[in-house]
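Secondary thiamine-phosphate synthase enzyme: structure tokens wanted.
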Amino acid sequence: MVDQVTFRLQARPRGFHVVTREIMEQLPVLPDRGLLHLFIQHTSAAITVNEAADPDVLTDFESIFNKIVPENMPFLVHTLEGPDDMPAHIKAAMIGHSVTLPITAGRLNLGTWQGVYLCEFRNRASGRGIVATIYG
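Answer:
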């Protein structure tokens, strides 16, 4: 069985956000076992899995990525959409646009502290489109 749904995550401010629950609310009943593939349809945001228990981790991710890829680098050429746009593309490429998660007993088989992150790199972004493909 293969099932696919497309939906939008609510708009969020720049930063790292745990969206596991919001994603699960958009999905049909999961099979007993299989895989869930999530793809974000944007070039200035990313999706990943990481620590979901301590909110300080989200803050630290934002700080690290802003230090590695700061805004207003004088050599950037793609600047028409604002100083946050090209750095957002670079950050998104570093993290990636998809994750694949195991499904076990009809639930995501994440580790105890893991959650799915929306990594929002724009200062003012709209909701982000997600394509979820369920294999089971």
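The chain is about 25% helix and 40% strand. The chain has one domain: 2-135.

Cheers.
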